[in-house]
Amino acid sequence: MKKILVANRGEIALRIMRTIRKMGIQSVAVFSEADRNSPHVSFADEAVCLGAPASASSYLNGDKIIAYCKELAVDAIHPGYGFLSENADFARQVEEAGITFIGPRAEAMRVMGSKLAAKECVKQYNIPMVPGIDKAIEDVAVAKETARQIGYPILIKASAGGGGKGMRIVEKDADFEEQMQRAISEAEASFGDGSVFIEKYVTSPRHVEIQVLADNYGNTVHLFERECSIQRRHQKVVEEAPSAILTPEIRKKMGEAAVMVARSCNYTSTGTVEFLMDDKMNFYFLEMNTRLQVEHPVTEMITGIDLVEEQIKIARGEKLSFTQDDLAINGHAVELRVYAEDPLNNFLPSIGTLSTYIKPQGEGVRVDDGYEEGMQIPIYYDPMIAKLVTHGKDRTEAIQKMKMAIKNFKIEGLSTTLPFGTFVFEHEAFIRGKFDTHFVKNHYTPELIKEKQKANAEAAALIGVKYWLEQQKILKPVEHKTTSWKRRLA
Ligand code: MV4
C-alpha cells in the first residue's frame, strides 16, 4: 500500500493523513471548492478538487472519487466518518474497482446499517437486548398487542434510523397508531425505508459504547468503553474513556458482548458497538457503527493505540500485533467537541471568521482540528471546529486539565461551545458521574453560563481595582528627603 486517498475533509482528513505519513505512505486529499485553502489540502502529498461545495456535489460523489483513484494509481481509500463511510454500496464499488476500502467489508456494513438485520444477526449469541420485537411492524393490531405486553412507555424505531430520526416515544395505548404512522412517514422520507419496530423505552439511559478491532484472521479484541451520554439532540458534546461508573466485571461482560456482536457479522477493521445502560447498570445492545468514530481519540489516549494505523494494517492484510490480554486502561481521557455554535443562543450555528485561533498546549493535551486562524467555517458541512482532548492519571486530573485547556483555547470571531464545555466540566453531577442522556436538557440553561461570566467579569474588575490601587501606592512619592538624589541636590 503506497498511496491512500482520504475521502473526507477537516479534522478527520488531517488526522488520518498524519498517520498515513507516519507509516511512510503517500496521501491524496480531495476537496470541494469551499475547502480549497484547508489544512487537509496543503498537508496532503497530492490533492484533487471534487466540485461545488455542497456535499452531494463533492464529498458524496463516489464515482468521481473512484475515477481519481484510478488516474492517480491510488491503492486504498480511507472514508473517515460521515459522508461515504457507512455506505455499503460505495465500499463494494471501491473493491470492484480493485481498490482497498479501509474499513469493514461491504456485507458487514450492510447488515449493521439495518437495525433489524443487526438484531437478526446477533440473536443467536446471547447478547442482551432491550425487550421488544425484532421484525418490522406489519399488522398494527398485533404490534399494539405486543406494546401492551412489553408495557408502556415503548419506543418506535426506524430500522434504517440514525440521529433519532423516525423515533417516537409512545406513552399509552391510545397514542399508538398515530405515533406509528408518524414514525413510518419520517422513516420513509429520511431513509426511503419505512420499516419500524418497537422496543421497551429505557427512560433515563446512559450511552456506553465499546471500541472493537478485528483483523482478517478471526482475531477480535475490544479497547474498552467510551461514555457518550452528554449529548444535545443526538449530537454528542462530551465523551470520556473509561466510563466513570463501570465496574471491571461489567466492563468485561460488555467487552465480551461487543466482541460477539463483531464476530456475528465476521466484522473486520475498527467498529463501535453501542449499548444503552439503565439505572441498575443493565446494558443492552443497540447498534453497531461500522466506521472510525469522531470520539476515537479518548480510546487512543487510554490505550496508547493509534486506531487509524490499526485500520490501515488490517486493510493491508496484517494480523493484530496484540491480544486482549495485552490491552489495559491507562488513566482517563475526556473530549469536548468545539462547535461553531452559540450555547447562549440555543446552539444556533455561529457564522464568522476565526480572527483569533490559538490552541492550548501541554502534557496530555491533544487538539484535533482542521482550521487555521483567518479561516471561515463553511456552512455546508458539520460545524465542528476542533476536538479538545485531555488525558490524566485519573478522571479528576483529566477534567482539571480540560478546564485549563478550555481557558487556554482562544477563539475569537465567532461563538463556540467552549463555554458550554466549562459548564459541563464544572457541573457537580458530571464530576460525580451522576448523569444520563438527559443531562443537557435537565441541567443546562444559558443563564447559568451568563451568570458565571458576570461573576467572572466582576471578579476581574475587582482584581483590576486592587492592582490599580497597588500601582498608586508604588507611584506615590516616598520620603524624598532621605534619597541620595536629594542629598546630592542639596
Ligand atoms: C433507545 C432509547 C431508550 N430506549 N432505545 C437514540 C438514537 C439511537 N442510536 C438509539 N437511541 C435511543 N434508543 C430504547 N429502547 C433512547 C435513545 C436515545 C439516546 C441514545 C443514546 C444517546 C442519546 C440518546 C438520546 C435520546 C434517546
Concise summary:
The protein has 17 helices and 20 strands. The strands form 5 sheets. Strands 13-12-9-10-11-14-19-18 form an 8-stranded antiparallel beta sheet, sandwiched between helices.
Report on this model:
The chain is an alpha+beta fold and 490 residues long. The protein has three domains: 3-102, Rossmann fold (3-Layer(aba) Sandwich); 131-200, Dna Ligase, domain 1, CATH 3.30.1490.20; 206-447, ATP-grasp fold, B domain (D-amino Acid Aminotransferase, Chain A, domain 1, 2-Layer Sandwich). Helices cover 37% and strands 23% of the residues. Strands 13-12-9-10-11-14-19-18 form an eight-stranded antiparallel β-sheet, with helices on both faces. Strands 3-2-1-4-5 form a five-stranded parallel β-sheet. Strands 7-6-8 form a three-stranded antiparallel β-sheet, with helices on one face. The radius of gyration is 26 Å and the shape is globular. Bound molecules: ligand MV4. Ligand MV4 is lined by residues 130, 155, 164, 199-202, 205, 207, 231, 234, 276, 286-287, 437. The site of ligand MV4 has 15 residues, from strand 8 and strand 13.
Low-confidence stretches: none
How far apart are the first and last residues' alpha carbons, in Å? 88 Å
- Ligands bound to this protein structure: ligand MV4
Residues in helix, %: 25-40%
**Number of structural domains:** 3
Query: Strand arrangement, largest sheet?
Result: 13-12-9-10-11-14-19-18
Tally of strands: 20
Q: Whole-number average pLDDT?
A: 95
Contiguous helical run count: 17
The CATH superfamily of the largest domain is known as ATP-grasp fold, B domain
Q: What general outline do the C-alpha atoms trace?
A: globular
